Records
---
Amino acid sequence: MSYRAPINDMTFLLENVVDYNLLENSNYFEDSSLETTVAILNEASRMAEMELNPLQSIGDQQPAYLENGVVRTAPGFSEGYKAIADGGWIGVAANSKYGGMGLPLTIQNCVNEMLNSSCLSLALNPLMTQGQIEALEHHASEEIKTLYLPKLITGEWSGTMNLTEPQAGSDVGALTTKAIKNHDNTYSISGQKIYISWGDNDFTNNVCHLVLARLPDGVQGTKGISLFLVPKFIPHHDGTVGKKNNLNVVSLEHKLGLHGSPTAVMEYDKATGWLIGKEHQGMKAMFTMMNNARLGVGAEGLGTAEAAFQKALIFAMGRKQGKTLTNDTGTIIDHADVRRMLMIMKSKTYASRAICLATAVAIDMSNASKKEFWINRAALLTPIAKSFGTETGIEVSNLGIQIHGGMGFVEETGAAQYWRDVRVTSIYEGTNGIQAIDLVSRKLMDGGKSAINLITEIQELITSDCSNITGFNQELKSAADTLTNATQWMINCKDLNERFAGATSYLEAFALVLGGYYHLKGALADDQLNKQVRLAKFYLSHVLPGVSQLCKTATVGSDAIYGLSVEELSMA
Ligand SMILES: Cc1cc2nc3c(=O)[nH]c(=O)nc-3n(C[C@H](O)[C@H](O)[C@H](O)COP(=O)(O)OP(=O)(O)OC[C@H]3O[C@@H](n4cnc5c(N)ncnc54)[C@H](O)[C@@H]3O)c2cc1C
C-alpha cells in the first residue's frame, strides 16, 4: 500500500486543537467552514495519492539533468505538476482578485503536507511559487501584480527565490550580485547565485526569479540589499512571453537526495529586472516570502514524517522475525522496541502537525485581525515550526530505516529516500541553527512577552479540568515550569553568545512543551475510544521528560562549548 493522506488526523486537530474556529468565524476569509475545508482536503488527497505519489521514486532514480543549457525534469513530473496546477493547489491561499482561492494559509498548509508526503522533490516547485506570490502581493506595484500573479497562481509560470551566493549563505548580507538602474526604470542584474531550487524546468512557460542584489549606493550588509523580479522570458503587457532574458542555468548540483528537484547555479549577465518594494529594502520584502516558506519547509519535514511512518508501519505489520513475547501477530510490530519506535514516530508527527497548523492559524489570524498579539504569536512560532517540523522529518525517517532493518538501508523499499530527501530541510530556508538564534534573540525582543503568554496559556490548561489524564498533566506542568525558567534566563542574559550557545536546546524544549500542550488538548477532546489519551500518555512519559535536560543545556552558558581551543580540536 502506498501513501494515504491523514485527513482524519488533520480534521481532528483543526476541530479540537489549533483553534481553527477563529478563522471560520472571522469575516476575512471566504468560505472556510470546517465542512468546506474537509471537502477541499479530500479532493487534494486524491490528487496527491493517485497522481503524485507514483512519481516519488521516479524522481529519485531519474533525476533532473541539464541538456545544452536546458533543464530536463524527471519522467512524469510535467504531468504531476499539471495536476497540481489544474487543481488550483498552488493558489489556495492567494488573493482571489488575481485568481487565487482566498482561503486560509492553514488549508494551504494541509494541502502542502500531502504534496510533500507524496513527492517532496516536485512539491518544492509550487512551494517556491507560493512564497513568490505572497511577496508580490505585499510588495509589488499593481502593474506587476496584474501581469504576474494570475500566471503564477494558475501555475502557467513558476517562481524561484535567489538569495544564496558562494560567499553568502547564512550571511545573506555578504552578497555581491549587482543591480544598476536603466533609463526605462528597469534594472540590470549581474552576478551568480547558487543552490537555486527549481532554477528552471521544462513544463512552465516562464520561470520568474526573485533575486536579491545591491545597487551602487547600497550600503554593505543586509540594509543595502534590494529585491528584483527577473523573468526567464520578458513578458509583454498582454501576458504572452517575449525574448529570453540574459540569465542561464550554468549547472545542476549532485545531491544526497531530493534528486527530482533541479538545484541550479544561476548566472545573471545584465539581465533585466524589476524592483519589488523600495530600493535597499529587499530584505523586508524577502522576509515576507521567507516566513511563508519557513512554515512551508516545516511542513516538508512533517509530510515526510507522515509518509515514512506509514511505510514503516506496513513493513512492521508484515515482517516476521523471532518469537514475540506478547504472542499477538507474530510480526516485528509486537516487539517492544519496534513498537517504541512507531510510537515516537506517531506522537512526534502529531506534535509537529499541531505546531505547523497552530503557526498557520496564527499567521492567518494576524492577516485577518492585524492584532499585535497574533503578529507576535506567528513570529514566535515560525522558527519553532520550521525547526521542529524538519527535525521530526529527519528523526522519523531515520527510525523508519531502523524499523526496516537491512531493507531500510537498501534502496528498494524507499525508506532511505525519505531520509535522504528530507535531510536538506534542516539546512535550507535558514539552517535550524539560525532559526534557534532567531528565537532567542529577535523573538524575545518583546521582553519575552509572547513566549511567556504562550507558556501561561499552557499552564492555565493544565490547572483546568484534566481529570481524564490525571497524573500525566503533572509531567507537562513540570516541563512548562522548567521552560518558563529557561525563558527568564534567556531574557535576563545580556551576553548574546551565551544565549546562542543554548539556543538549539531551548528551541527544542519549547517545541516539546508545545507538543505536550497539543497532545493534552487532543486528549481532552478525545472521543470514547480514548486513542488520543493513550497517544498523549506515551508522549508525556517518553518524549516530554527530555525538556528538563534540554533546559539545563540551554541555560548552562558557553564555557564548556569553547572548552577546547581550535588547536586542541585539531590535535590527533
Ligand atoms: C538542495 C538545496 C536547495 C536550496 N535552495 C535554495 C533556493 O532555492 N534559494 C536560495 O537562495 N538558497 C537555496 N539553498 C541554499 C540554502 O538556503 C543555504 O545552503 C543555507 O542558507 C545555508 O547556507 P550555507 O550552505 O552557505 O551554509 P553556511 O552559512 O556556511 O553554514 C554552515 C554552518 O554554519 C552555521 N552558521 C552559519 N552562520 C552562523 C551564525 N551566524 N551563527 C551560528 N551558526 C552559523 C550554519 O548553521 C551551518 O551549520 C539551497 C540549498 C540546498 C542544499
Note: The mean pLDDT is 95.
---
Amino acid sequence: MAIRFRHEQSVEYGVARTISPLIRRVVAKNPSPFTYHGTGTYLIGRGEVAVVDPGPAIGEHVDALLAALAGERITHQLITHTHLDHSPAARLVAERTGAPTLGFGPHGAGRHERGATVEAGADLAFVPDVRVGPGDVIEGAGWSVEAVHTPGHCSNHLCFQVREERILLTGDHVMGWSTSVISPPDGDMGAYLASLELLLTRDDRMYLPTHGPAIEDPRPFVRSFIEHRQEREAQIVDCMERGVDRIREMVPTMYAGLPAFLHLAAARSVFAHVLHMMDRGVVRCEDEQPGLEARYRLAR
Ligand SMILES: [Zn+2]
C-alpha cells in the first residue's frame, strides 16, 4: 500500500495563522530536505499561551513568535524532542520571557542503555525545566495538553494532545509530507513501530506535525506507515537472499530514484531496520560490530 503523502504548496514565514480555535502556527524560515518548508511552531491558547517547539535558534523566528504574541504571555514551552530544528530557540524565548520549558528529558533520555552519543542534529545542551512523562496533563488558561511518549525518531520524543480539540501535535513522529528518519543509536525502529501502534489505540481527530500540513482522518495514514516499514523489511530480506549483504549496497536497490545526497539518511534507516531484525533474531551480523559496512545474513 502506498502512503498518500500530504503536501502544502507554500507557507508564509513568520506570521501566525489560525489552525483551530485554540491553535495557531508560525513557520520558521529553515526549509531543507529534512524540514520541508521549515519548523512549524504551534501556539496553544489565547492570552496565556503554550509554545510548542519554539524551533531553531534563528533570531528572526523568535522575533516573529514574540511579535505574534504581543499583549499575550507565554506560560509554557513544550518540547517534542531535542533536534536542532525543534528545541534550541527555547533558550532564546526563555531569556526574553522567562517561560519555562517542559520536555521528556535531555537528548538520549529515553534510551535504555547508558553511554553518551554525539549526534549531528541533536541539541545536546537542552535540559527541560520540568520533566514530563506519558499521560501527564499540563493545564493552561482555557486549554489542557496530554503528553504522549512516542520514542523512535528520538528516544525523548513526545506528542502533545490538545484535549479540548482532540488534536495531536505529532512533532516528527508522524508527518504528512515524508516518513520520519530513524537513525540509530537514538533512533530506534522497534520503538518507532510501537509508538505508531500506540497512536492506533487513540481517538485523536487530527494530527498537526511540526513540518507540513495537518493530517485529517489520521489512523489509516498511521497504518500505511506501519505497512511501509513492513515492506522495507521485506526488501531487506530480499536483498540478503540475493547476497546483497551490506547496507550501502542495499540502499540503491531499495530506494530507486532517491537523490544520492539522501542515501546516507536512507542507510541510517535501513540500519535501524537491521538492528530491529537482529533484536528479534531474524538477522545475524557477520562482523564484530554492526554498522553500515558490516555484512549481515538471515538467521535461518
Ligand atoms: Zn524536525
Note: The mean pLDDT is 94.
